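Weekly structure sync, notes
Attendees: PL (lead), two postdocs, one rotation student
Agenda item 3: pending single-chain targets
PL asked that the sequence for the first pending target be pasted directly into the notes so everyone works from the same version. It is reproduced below exactly as submitted, 451 residues in total.
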Amino acid sequence: MGLFFCVKTFGCQMNKHDSERVAGMLEALGALPVNDIEAADVVVYMTCCVREAADTRLYGQVASMKNIPLRPGTPLGKRIVAVGGCIGQRDGEKLLAALPHLDVVFGTHNLGALPRLLREAVGSGERAAEVLDASSGFSSDLPTDREHAWAAWLPITIGCNNFCTYCIVPYVRGREKSRPLEDIVAEAQRYVDAGVKEITLLGQNVNSYGRDLYGQPRFAAVLDAVAATGVKRLRFATSHPKDLTDEVIDRFGSLEALMPALHLPVQAGSDAVLAAMNRRYTAAHYRGLVEKLRRVCPNIALSTDVIVGFPGETEKDFLDTYRLIEEIGYHQVFTFIYSKREGTPAASLPANATREEIQDRFERLEKLVQDSAWKANQAEAGATVEVLVEGVSKRDPRLLSGKSPKNQTVHAPLPEDCSIEQLQGRFVDVKVDEARTWYLSGTVVDGSLHG
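Predicted structure, written out during the meeting:
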């Protein structure tokens, strides 16, 4: 009887990419993937510790494992549970003490050690935590099992040097390290040759790529070189405003492959709060970046992150943020109530707003965000957009689901003469009949299937 594994992923795109590497390593051992913990012999949690809710979720899920019966006939005699990612890096052996049903802990810097640690846990029956202080390189030489054959994550940097006062990432991902440009291009070319249609470049701050290798950022050169591989669609995340250069902005007008969508986290619209966050730009500088972007690419879709209730935030500070969000007109805004992370400078800052005041601000901002998203999507009403088909709608299997160049979700009835298997990973043109807050819906243009 075979061995089955399940990987559960929390957090950012980098964690999703790491999860694909974990799946690849386990498949290389002969294990088979399953979606449900109940059917798995090995369960791996890839974790995020940016917000407190992620800790609570992990501890609750691992603790509940004692109530999940083993798969009949499991060859291991027990279910092996492993925790990696940022919580694994931060807590190490503390997790073993807190979670009796946990067998293996590994960190962000030793992803490749997981197969060995699992074999040792099975062979000896002993629990183990192995966390390294720094990484010797990238995990790109590890086997991978990508979620979609037509799309690939491609990390170009790991770590972060920014030390925003609220953020734990530099402490669990380490200092910033860039991959050599030739390695990035070689991996991108392998993906394109294998039929990948969309590549997303990854890093905690892609804009500062190359500063450690070449003395100055060279992210624009990465965009040029990866676009030259012939990839149809190119995206990147995440982008720190303080390092977004004119050269990178110009690429939104000169590179056909670079999609007209950018995630540019602002976090706050108040200069006082931005300074307390150590973001190292002002609201005016951020607005200037948006102006430049729209001058080069008038139809660019912008998304952002906003933290509500940062220590010291006043009602005036909040209104500065509200006005900025209202003024820019984002396609999507990810809003978060400030979550204290022990070990960060902001954790010791006193709050000057009540929980009720912060919740009220959050709800006001959420209403604005929904209105903004609906208005932004109206630009596509009646237009025809190219859609990279990903699958069917979760709510209605009769509808295909995919992404527009602006990264909008698009739904359309499946053409009568096509199955979803024929459409997945290919492009169709969709005439948009209705633009909603979070998606577009329409009909597939006859004869538009390509790619």
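Discussion points:
- DSSP finds 15 helices and 19 strands in the chain.
- The first helix runs from residue 13 to 28.
Action: rotation student to compare against the earlier draft before next sync.
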